[in-house]
Amino acid sequence: MSLSYPAQAHINNRHLKDFIKNTGQVKPIIKYNELNAKSFHPTDEEFKTINIILNNFHDIEFFKYRVINPNSTKSFANNPLFESIGHSFDIAYSSFINVISSSFDRELTFLPKADEWGAGFNNLRDKKVQGYYHGSDIKLPPIGLKEIYEGQARFLQLQYLYFGS
């Protein structure tokens, strides 16, 4: 989770520079897009860039919500920027690895070669494997990271009370 914000900045760095060059320093980008985009599938460079920025940002957000609180998936499943759970995990994990590798493993000798995962995820999408294509059923795990952390905190409290008494 701690890599989410750096990954969002890292994955969009080049695209944000292009956005500033094409549009200027405009915030928030999503509002600018809502007010000025003329089609859902943009053809001009400015809105293609905005589309990439927004999709990358939201893919990692969707990943975070799904991992922290799986039931929140229902709230974004119909969002037009949501592709699939598999896509969100692909973008998030590959972005996390890219952030880490930029600091100490640029040649990816130790870390997985996340830039090679795209073909495999595209293959799953093309074969219509559940969870990897737009509109597929979304399976929810019974617990999320929030419950795991709560369980860990309770266990540690019990351990503390046991050793402290």
Could you please describe the fold and organization of this structure?
- This protein is mostly helical.
- The chain has one domain (4-139).
- The protein is 64% helix and 0% strand.
- The chain contains seven helices and no strands.
- It has helices at residues 4-22, 29-36, 45-68, 73-76, 85-104, 117-126, 145-164.
- The model has no long low-confidence stretch (mean pLDDT 91).
Strand content: under 5%
Number of strands: 0
Annotation field: number of helices: 7
Distance between the termini: 35 Å
Characteristic key phrases:
165 residues; mainly alpha; 7 helices; 64% helix; globular
Q: Topology, please?
A:
Layout: H1 4-22, H2 29-36, H3 45-68, H4 73-76, H5 85-104, H6 117-126, H7 145-164
Helix pairs in contact: 1-3, 1-5, 3-5
In short:
This protein is mainly alpha-helical and 165 residues long. It has helices spanning 4-22, 29-36, 45-68, 73-76, 85-104, 117-126, 145-164. It contains 7 helices and no strands.
